[in-house]
Give the backbone structure.
Amino acid sequence: MYTFLWYNRAMIWILIVVLLILLYGIFVEPHLMRVKNVVYSKNQGLKLAHFSDTHFTWHTSARRFQKFAKNITENQPDMILFTGDLFDKVDWAKKQDLSSFERILSDLSAPLGKFAILGNHDFDEQNADFVRKILEKAGFTVLTNQSNLAEQLSITGIDDLREGQPDFTILPVTSATFSLLMIHEPDTILQMTHLEKFDLVIAGHSHGGQIRLGNFRLRNKGSKYFDSGSYKISEKTLLYVNNGIGLTFLPIRIGVPPELTYYEI
């Protein structure tokens, strides 16, 4: 009898703990904001703001992004970078009034410009033109297998690994003193043929696993090898994987709060 009662009490406590974790993951953590600062070097004297994977949809509104936009405005970065997955589903976005999303993205500003690449969720059955036009209307330069020079900083963006047609042989602008590569899926670097030419590689896609408890995390195609934080690829090349802002598949985050990253280079 005593053993039976102890077992029942233990199960009740386990259920309570699981319920509290779920409530936290649904109603608390997705609304947080973690700001990360990454120092590569200070030779360029520039600050870059990086956000990713907004996954705007019914459970992640433009209003939720406002605190990130406010933080970017207050920090006055020299450049703003977005590494894809603007909406969770393009078909959903096409049926909405997107004026609030467009306004908050348009209000972001930086003297060296705003650059973006496309993620796998930015494609519908035809192409990614819908998302591309929204980003361009908001003042972002969308890079698709292109390198752009902003002062002495080379900004390269390649097409999405899963849905696009990426050029793995692309090179930075040769006259630049610092080269940055934007990719959506971090595992893309495994196929890059000239990775050693880039100083900093930034990515998103993984959401840090979105649910991460100790060594357990959800795994996503394209981020099985690199999924969160900094990775020293070589003496020159640093990869940083941003945990993203939004949610996909399940409206829940545990152990990986929404993230905004600043790079000092």
Observations:
- Helices lie at 2-27, 62-75, 90-93, 99-106, 129-137.
- The CA atoms of residues 230 and 240 lie 4 Å apart.
- The chain has a mean pLDDT of 93.
